[in-house]
Here is the input.
Amino acid sequence: MILEYEHYGFMGAASGQEGIALVQHDRPDLVLLDIKMQGMDGMEVLRKLHAHDATLPVVMISGHGTTSTAVEATKSGAIDFLDKPLSSERVIVTVQNVLRQRDLNLENRELKGAIESKYEMVGDSAPLRAVLESVRRAAPTNATVLLLGESGVGKELVARTVHRNSPRAGQKFIQVNCAAIPEELIESELFGHEKGSFTGATEKQIGKFEQADQGTIFLDEVGDMSSRTQAKVLRVLQEQEVERLGSVRTITVDVRIIAATNTNLEEAIQRGEFREDLYFRLNVIPIVVPPLRERRDDIPLLVRHFAKRISVDHNLRPRRFDPKAMEALKRYHWRGNIRELRNTVERLMIMTTGETVQFEDLQPDIRGGAAASPPVGAPSGAPAEIPSGAPSAGTLREFKDTAERAYLVQKLRESDWNISKTAETIDTPRSNLYKKLEQYGIKQDVDG
Ligand SMILES: Nc1ncnc2c1ncn2[C@@H]1O[C@H](COP(=O)(O)OP(=O)(O)OP(=O)(O)O)[C@@H](O)[C@H]1O
Ligand SMILES: [Mg+2]
Here is the structure.
């Protein structure tokens, strides 16, 4: 009656046996379970319920003389207990708390899953497996790792994987993009400063090394540091201590260093741009992340992985990739590596109308033929402009449809409404063009 009055759905069972059957059939959010019952007692029912689903929240109800059993029950997995006689307030507060807790747990699990899938390393090629093997060996140690490889190969992802598999996984992972911070700010970014230590230092700032204490610092684009910063970083690596600008105090830090670069450091040393002693400090465990064109076997796996993620992230219908399209994606040289592949898949998912991404949907340069100039909006050419007449508001799909329609009408006019000719110029099968004309209700304009 208490629960019904509060508009909770509620089912009763007259025995433990009946209760177990009910739970398995109806999957309730929460179980209130008496201890003293005919036949199977509450403790046994609790064990059986949890053997089936350990996450099911169970609140024990203790009568006269069973309070200690109820306490015992919370130790063996019950989430809380209520004393008889039941007070309506206590019941309501307990139920509310348990349900809120359950929602938080669910949310937490979802977020964790989302983060994990975001940083999941996909691929099964021999070169990638070699990278993962190095990660497996390096991760449990405190050794400095130097990640080398072209832009977009996944160096950051590897750095995060090292951290997540290290004893420091529960601590911070602090990323510093050495190329993105202006030269005059990088020292205060890395080491921090005291208030008033220079003009503009209105507040004290904790540097990245200090923030990463006990955790991992990821020095990205390490080849782009000025010689002055290189000297300072070298000192931290040697002494494991930092000094904030404007302070005489040294602070001891315990950080694991992972560095990454896409420049050839040995050449930079030859040119006198990178300190050799810093290079030796960083190059303890070098891991070369190979370009995508050297591990083409990973491409289908990556395409499917991105397609799935993108359809979830953008609320798009899932799409399959036609074998011929997949072959072309596998053959392409991918100068921008995995980042470029990801962007391509994203674009295909948004721009393709059918259930399946066909070879014809690919950009001409990926298809490999000496194709016509890229259509308006194709990213290989000049950046797409918003066609006049297209709405700047509305959903992506509305925008896309309007833009596509305007583009088709224009092209048809240019070829005097000759379908075959238009299909050829815009490099799409005639059947597809017919489909589009019907879809958008395009008819030849009267004045031609
Ligand atoms: N093996 C992989 N599985 C899934 N996604 C990956 C993989 N490798 C890289 N990615 C994704 O590709 C993109 C580029 O990766 P990342 O930023 O790690 O590259 P990078 O080597 O640091 O590039 P840059 O040198 O340009 O900074 C990211 O979105 C990343 O999540
Ligand atoms: Mg990076």
Summary: The longest strand covers residues 256-261. The first helix runs from residue 2 to 5. Confidence is low (pLDDT under 50) at residues 369-391.
